[in-house]
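Entry 12.
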Amino acid sequence: MKRFVAALMLLSAPPAIAADEIPAPIAERFAGDQNFDWSGFKAGLQVGYGWGSPGVVAGEGLIGGVHAGYDWSMGNAVAGVEASVSAADIEIGPNNRLNSVVDLKGRLGYSFDRVLVYGTAGAAWGNATSGDGTGAAVGGGIDFGMLEDAIIGVKYLKYRFDNMNNSGNSLEIDLIEGKVTYRF
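Predicted 3D structure (tokens):
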């Protein structure tokens, strides 16, 4: 079995290539130049998994949608604004589901060349089977600049919706999302 694993590892290993053998346009796209610019308009897709906070609701489910925003780079600091619209199917109680979420958030982060670590907070609106509610979203994430204009990332968000359907009840949802973003 050990020989089989070793042979599989050797066969799957990429061949060694000298840096001067990589075509210039490809080498430039992957170069760690410490000058990756996070500035600009961006748009993309996200998909994730959400669950109700313990003691509030016990449900869970999927969420996914689109996002768009703009970032400004100031040295290693990055500030931006982002809006997202998501369809959801998260159980939040008996015969009650969270159907959609819309948010508008600011974000502030620090970049390490092609890696951006950030915190985010803003306003949110949620629609459930039982009615609507407004509230807040807070969280954080990490983005990775794959190419000059392609970014992948993962983020955690906590939504708190107050006064759902004017009932005085609040709703808290945690979620983790993966995202793919294109920067224009």
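Annotation: The longest strand covers residues 77-93. The chain has one domain: 39-183.
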